[in-house]
Design a protein that fits this description.
CATH class of one domain: Mainly Beta
Number of helices: 1
Radius of gyration: 21 Å
Distance between the termini: 74 Å
Bound molecules: zinc ion
Shape: elongated
């Protein structure tokens, strides 16, 4: 079996070094990857904004907080709001907010 055949190895699959996936599906408009997280470690603020519907959410972060955590917190808040639309008050969210930055929710 003298088949001469140059062994051509497929190029090694190089894992594309992507930046952390910081684009998430929007819980409001359900657009995939429309939400971008911006981590401002200097001010310890994580902000996520939907490029489609402009919904946004800001939370405090620390050195260990990842973009995904910011997103998860957002989802948490959305869930709470959905479960108890009349009971959610920002003052109840004592663990995230100590500055009153009162954006309108709607
Ligand atoms: Zn959206």
């Amino acid at each position: 079996m003298g088949r001469r055949r140059s062994k051509r190895k497929p190029p090694p699959k190089r894992k594309a070094i992507e930046p952390l996936d910081i684009q998430f599906t929007c819980p409001f408009c359900n657009s995939e990857k429309s939400c971008e997280v911006i981590m401002d470690h200097g001010r310890k603020i994580g902000q996520i904004t939907c490029n489609i519907c402009q919904e946004d959410f800001t939370t405090t972060i620390n050195a260990l907080t990842e973009a995904l955590d910011v997103y998860n917190e957002w989802i948490d808040e959305c869930d709470k709001a959905n479960e108890n639309p009349n009971q959610v008050e920002r003052s109840a969210l004592s663990r995230t907010r100590d500055e009153s930055d009162s954006d309108d929710d709607d």
